[in-house]
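B., you asked whether I could sanity-check this one before it goes into the benchmark set. Here's the sequence:
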Amino acid sequence: MTYRRYVDGPFGQLHLREAGVQGSDRTSLVCLHMSPMSSRTYDQFLDCWAAGGGHAVAFDTPGFGMSDAPADVPTIADYARAIRTGVEALGLVQPVDLLGYHTGSLIACELAASAPQMVRRLVLIAAPIFTPEERAELSELYGPELPAADGSHLVRRWQSFAHHFRAGGSSLEQIADAFPERLLGRANSWWGHHAAFGFAENLRLPEISQPVLVINPGDDLSEQTRRAAPLLVNGRIVEQPHWGHGFLDRNTEGAVKLVDDFLR
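And here's what the prediction gave me:
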C-alpha cells in the first residue's frame, strides 16, 4: 500500500508518496516525476515495487502536485535542493537510488553530480540533449499562458496532453484520469519546463560516475535522448520504442523488472 505524507522543505511543505519499508537489504528508491505532473505518475509503480520487497518514495516537485511552490521561478538546482532536503527529512539511509522522468531526470542528474555521496545509481526515463534552436523553440512553446474567459487555454492543454498520451497507447479514460494532475501547477505550471530548458546542455552527464541506465521510450524526446550516449561515463541507453507516455501504468510490471534488474 502507498501512503501519502508531508515533510518540511526549503520552500514549504513537500508532499510525497511512500511504499514499502525501509531497512531491508535493498537501497531506497527516490522517484522524480516529469513536469507539469505529480508523484501520482508513480502510483502503480510504487505498489508493484513494494510488493517485490522494495522501498520507494515519490516526491511532488515544489510547485506541483500538493507541494508548496517557491516564491520565485526555480532552477533545476533549486528542485534538487528540495529533494535532498526531503530525503534527509525522511531519514532515508544514503546513498539512495534515483528514478527520474523527463524533468525528473534532470533533477536526478543534478543530484548525482552535486551530491555524489547521496546517490548510488540512477535510472533516467529520457535524458534529452537539446540543440540551442530546440531550447528556444520549446521555451516559447511551453512558456507562460494567460487564462482565457472561454476556457480555450484549458482546451489547448487537454489537446496537447491527450496527443502525447494517446501516442503512447493510453486510452481516453486513462488520459482523463491523469489530466487533473497536469493542472495542479496552476499559473506556474510552466516553471518546470523553464527550469529544464535552462539546465546544463550536457545534463552534467560527464560529471556522473555512478552507474546510469537511460530508458528511451517512444515519446517526444526519443531523438534528443539518443544524443546522450557519448556523454555517459558509466551508463547505457535501453530503447523501449513501444513504451510511450503512461507506460508506468500500462506496463508497470515490465518497468519494475527493468529498473530492479539494473539496480540489483
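One thing to flag: The radius of gyration is 17 Å. Otherwise nothing jumped out at me.
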